[in-house]
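In response to reviewer comment 3 from the previous cycle, which asked for concrete evidence that the modeling workflow produces usable outputs, we include below a single protein chain processed end to end. The sequence was submitted unchanged, and the resulting structure tokens are shown without manual editing.
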Amino acid sequence: MTLVSGPLGFLNVPAVGNGYALLSLLPSALKAQLDFLLTKTDPLFGLQRMAAEVLGVVEEAPGVKSLVLRPPVRWQGFEPGQYVNIELDIDGVRYRRNYSISSAKSLFEREGLFSITVKQVPGGLVSEYVQQHVKAGSYLYISEAKGQFILPPLAASAPVFVAAGSGITPVMAMLEALAEKDALDGAELIYIVRTRADVIFADRLRKLSEQYKGFQYSLYFSDERGRAKFPQLLKDIDQPTCRKLYICGPEGMMQSAQKAALKLGFRPSDIASESFGLSNLNKTKRMMGEVASASSSVHCELSGKTLSGKTLSGHPPQTLLELAERAGLKPKYGCRSGICHECSCLKSSGRVLNLKTGTLVPEEQRMVQACISVPIDDVSIASW
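The workflow returned the following structure tokens.
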């Protein structure tokens, strides 16, 4: 497979950068019409949203698939460890999720391709849709690569990686980046999974361990050995005071690993972690049960300019954003994970719980993020 030239390559000029940058200077109405025509010709030609074509689907483990994507020529590439926002329209509602890039950087540099890896989450609307409906020939809308969970340009010592479950996805790209620089010897990976069948990228990891004898790769099967105890898992790491530690997985696992690492001598500045998703859902549900006045149903009154005169009804733990979307509205949002603040709205009354922290938002706090705010009683939104 090879990367083909974009449709507007003839517009490349040094002063602007490329044809797409030049077209961005057009009036909005004209740009919208041109975007419509280009998208009808090929979704990859779009100006306002970036589409990527799914070229292949790889079964990595039960319920885990990698999607090989061909982005448009204006996509700027990535650093190993970064992620992209994936945007899907499901039953008339637009959903966004963050997925780490799981392919080697050389694949993009050589063929203009990259992959993301999606693990099916029970009850997860987007992950189940991807598993069941996204196939070769499908298109996904993507963002530019984002995130600071990346390797430094130069490192004095080989890094240590701790991953659990699908947390291996950004780590896989980082390991292969080290291998391409012939810098994997001395690196260590501790990979925690439930069973042997749940190992993601088993063949790629095995090949790395065979090729680089100095790469220490260990698997921990929690079904066989119980919950991972990080003081024991990390105790044999050499020179923790001068090595970088990368942790990726469920929030609770990362907190336990970081706590153990600090006690063993890792410096706080040398510990990096990455997590997507809302890890405190169960804590939030428990918190709801502890709030005496939390009702079985809630109403959300919208009085802002764009969503004025609407009253939404629902049941916790639906977020403000979910309530609006299920009522047929289309409020603004970005990451849907409490990171980007695109969905921030002005609350004039009522109480909400923060789904990311599992804590009650102080009543005097007016600005809240709709994607992670769960109303526990009637709430009024003054501006959205």
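The chain has three domains: 9-142, 160-274, 281-383. We consider this sufficient to address the reviewer's concern, and the full set will be provided in the supplementary archive.
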